[in-house]
What we know:
6 strands, Nuclear Transport Factor 2, Chain: A, mainly beta
Amino acid sequence: MPVRKRITWGSEATLSDPRLQGLDRIVREIRRAHGRPPQEGVKGGKVFENSNEDLPARRNGYYHEYDVQIAGPDGRGKLRIVLGDQGEVWLTGNHYNDFRQIINMPS
């Protein structure tokens, strides 16, 4: 598996993409809603199959994906959040071409 950039959450986090404002709140709300999208502008919750083994190997159903800032004619942009069952947070801004892991995000 290729090395992924890891971004430590906090005051030093460099998430300049305006679609990621409030990322911690979005993730908390998804987790509180037991995997259901919490708000307008976020949809999804289906199992992320990890068929290309982009993320660490886990059992089927471990990862779930969410679209953020829904746009375009089909209602889906390219920004995705993938959440792991043990609190992992992964981002891809280019529809799964690469991932960034956010670490130390408060739950």
